[in-house]
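OP here, attaching both records as promised.
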Amino acid sequence: MGTYSRIDPQERLEFNQSFSDADGNVLPGATFDMPDMPDEVRTVVTFGSVDETTTSITITQYEQPADQAVEYAVAGWNQSFDKMVRALQPGRTADVES
């Protein structure tokens, strides 16, 4: 679950995200064995041009404890980017589920 607070096309996204159930109710980190995790994590994603065909992406997450939650965040972002790569393959028409 999350809320966008700033969208600058091709430059920057800012949003808050949290764990939630299927109905959108915020769940505390303790639900997932992460008692130090805040209810919301502020995230800033910036995009930069490397060259005509390459974009750099920098992701900064605030208020996140420096423990196993960081490992989970990195794994989650990597999984999201892997899905994006598959979804953007030429000729792809189906949704990417996993």
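Record two, same layout:
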Amino acid sequence: MLQAEKKKLKSCPLCRQPLTQVMRYGRVLNKMKFDQADIQFAGQTHTQLGQAEGMYQQAAAATQSADQLGNRVLPCMSSCYA
């Protein structure tokens, strides 16, 4: 997925912990956090869309098979009860 856009947060050269409390990097860190959240949202939405499409296809197939079954059963029932 969008791996090229995934960037690492600025970190301390000694302990390698992200610099989240340093005001100097506030704008850069906020942009990176928003970018990561945007990428996560896009991934989750893509997954949910795929699941919804699968459910739609299953429902369409079930409806089509029910229609085909109904077309075979209804003429028989209408002639029996007429």
